[in-house]
Amino acid sequence: MDFNMIVGGALIAICEALPPEGAGQIAGVLHRLAERESMTPAERHIFETCADTLTSRGRPKRPTLHVIEGGAA
Questions:
Q1: Domain spans of the chain?
Q2: Which of 5, 30, 43, 54 can bridge 39 by disulfide, Cβ–Cβ 3.0-4.6 Å?
Q3: 33: Cβ–Cβ under 8 A, 6 or more apart, which residues?
Q4: How far apart are CA 39 and CA 61, in angstroms?
């Protein structure tokens, strides 16, 4: 497995437990890392994708659970 996928998955899992402000701060750090001149285009894309996933732009909507009430016929 690719190291970037492991680190990205760990960051996303950690940020799920943080309040939105905390996840936003981590996303900001990732965006700043992506802007470094030493980053290759592939690395830049990885950092930006992880940062976008941590913010509402990239976060998938979770399905809503509906309880169906009823009885036996």
A1: 25-57
A2: 43
A3: 39, 47
A4: 31
Q: Which two tokens stand for residue 8?
A: 């990205």
Backbone angles phi, psi at 36, to 5 degrees: -65, 145
DSSP state letter for 68? P
DSSP assignment of 18-53: S-HHHHHHHHHHHHHHHT-TT--HHHHHHHHHHHHH
Residue length, the chain? 73
Tens of pLDDT, residue by residue over 10-56, are 887 887 788 878 888 888 888 898 899 998 898 888 888 888 877 76
Tokens of 18: 């943080």
Amino acid of residue 14: I
